[in-house]
Design goal:
single chain; 139 residues; six-stranded antiparallel β-sheet
């Protein structure tokens, strides 16, 4: 549990944790070969394993062109493919969009990743697989 807590508070030190885990495995193997007690090495091994196991949630890896890196006040012209059929609500509809490009008047950025799009009203003509383009901020 201590490794999980430290991994959540101080994420993205995977190399350090892998080094600790490897050293502990080496010490444990050496002590087993000599038929001696390993004492503290298993504690540090489980600490580093707990640290490594929480990392996908504490510090998930996102590629350099991932759409999450472009959030903020900039209004983008977003182009992408509708991944899920629109879920209709009383006042708005929602669907998942696989982003392909982000564009401003000055820049075109190839991007990847999914965003959830909320549209006012009922987009009758929109279906899964459609390629769409619209302008919005990313949040």
């Amino acid at each position: 549990m201590a490794g999980i807590i430290v991994g959540d508070l101080h994420p993205d030190h995977r190399l350090w944790a892998w080094g600790l885990a490897s050293a502990c495995l080496g010490l444990i193997a050496n002590n087993l070969r000599r038929k001696r007690s390993a004492r503290l090495a298993p504690i540090f091994l489980f600490f580093s394993v707990g640290y490594l196991l929480i990392q996908p949630w504490s510090a998930p890896y996102t590629p350099p062109a991932h759409v999450s890196r472009y959030t903020g006040p900039i209004r983008w012209e977003i182009t992408g493919t509708v991944r899920t059929p629109p879920v209709l609500g009383s006042l708005r509809s929602r669907f998942l969009l696989a982003v392909e490009t982000l564009k401003t008047p000055d820049t075109v950025v190839p991007a990847n990743g999914n965003i959830r799009v909320t549209v006012a009203g009922n987009p009758d003509t929109l279906s899964q697989g459609d390629l769409i383009r619209f302008t919005s901020r990313l949040r």
